[in-house]
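Consider the tokenized backbone below.
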């Protein structure tokens, strides 16, 4: 009688590899897993070795932070951050009166606070819409003035970061209801409404934003009656709203297509009208699905507001050009645009991280 063979140890009984070993193996596979990856890794490493020490030397070690004038900055040999310290109010607030710059600062803080509050799902209540309306009114009063003892400031003197934030937030905020209506119109069973919605969306999406800005700045005044004039800033804001609405409509349409047919049939079976069905059943689910792409769209609109510089509006980049025009501080364009780039990066990165976190949260909720 043969003795029974000893069974081999099961694979699952082996201890798992340490997490750190798995991490390094994955990193090695991504960096040197193929000949192309190895070549690219070596090339990028060589570029970093060549560039990083020079950048650190220029930006920090040889930089001047407190130089009294441009000559002292140039003598230091590195970056002239003293230029930013000297011109930061012009870059951030444009031509707004110097003594009144606390007003655009508070207006910008209100808009940022509203955006942060909107990013918190537990605050998605009707009160938030009223908070947005109140915030927009207070921001407009602070910027224009003329009431409550505030001196009047024409919007031709607005500029810098507050104006960029206002163009982006007001643009998306006003474009959102229009985009939702266009999305519903594109799925409408009424041929005329569907045709008009499709024509609008495809026409606007077929041209770049810069074309709409030129049309609003140059062509629109030619079609207005004699004596009638619309402010240039308002025309630019209108172009941004029309542009963003077309893209929001397509994003929302994607959310509507993701709603199961049973949701429409269930809403109809309990006797809801079309608008009740959309408001109470369909749109809440559809908008929840498309929140991440809507946030990404906001990032795109925030960056696209820099295009208003082509029609002479003093946004953040135009006010930076004004700061560089000072003859006493010429030659520090790199420092100025690095500063502006950091501002854009901080806002866009924060919104992007929020979008990724929200997308992961919604995915985990759907998986339950």
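A designed sequence for it:
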């Amino acid at each position: 009688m043969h003795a029974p063979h000893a069974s081999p140890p099961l694979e699952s009984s082996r201890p798992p590899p340490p997490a750190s070993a798995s991490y390094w193996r994955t990193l090695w596979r991504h960096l040197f897993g193929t000949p192309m990856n190895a070549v690219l890794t070596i090339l990028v490493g060589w570029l970093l070795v060549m560039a990083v020490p020079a950048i650190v030397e220029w930006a920090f070690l040889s930089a001047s932070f407190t130089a009294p004038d441009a000559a002292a900055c140039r003598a230091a040999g590195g970056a002239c951050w003293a230029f930013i310290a000297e011109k930061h109010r012009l870059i951030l607030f444009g031509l707004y009166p110097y003594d009144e710059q606390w007003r655009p600062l508070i207006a910008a803080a209100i808009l940022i606070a509203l955006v942060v509050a909107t990013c918190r799902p537990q605050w998605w209540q009707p009160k938030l819409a009223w908070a947005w309306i109140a915030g927009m009114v207070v921001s407009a009063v602070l910027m224009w003035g003329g009431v409550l003892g505030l001196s009047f400031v024409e919007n031709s003197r607005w500029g810098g970061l507050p104006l960029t934030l206002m163009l982006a937030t007001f643009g998306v905020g006003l474009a959102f209801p229009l985009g939702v209506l266009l999305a519903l119109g594109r799925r409408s069973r009424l041929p005329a409404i569907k045709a008009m919605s499709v024509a609008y969306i495809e026409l606007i999406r077929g041209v770049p934003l810069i074309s709409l800005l030129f049309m609003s700045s140059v062509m629109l005044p030619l079609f207005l009656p004699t004596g009638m004039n619309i402010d240039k800033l308002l025309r630019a804001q209108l172009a941004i709203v029309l542009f963003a609405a077309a893209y929001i409509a397509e994003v929302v349409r994607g959310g509507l297509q993701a709603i199961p047919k049973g949701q429409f049939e269930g809403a109809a079976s309990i006797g809801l009208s079309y608008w009740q069905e959309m408001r109470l059943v369909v749109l809440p689910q559809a908008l929840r699905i498309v929140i991440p792409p809507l946030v990404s769209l906001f990032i795109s609109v925030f960056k696209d507001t820099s295009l208003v510089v082509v029609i002479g509006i003093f946004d953040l980049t135009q006010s930076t050009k004004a700061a560089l025009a000072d003859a006493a501080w010429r030659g520090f364009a790199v420092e100025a645009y690095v500063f502006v780039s950091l501002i854009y990066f901080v806002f866009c990165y924060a919104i992007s991280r929020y979008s990724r976190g929200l997308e992961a949260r919604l995915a985990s909720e759907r998986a339950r």
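Residues 41-79 form one domain.
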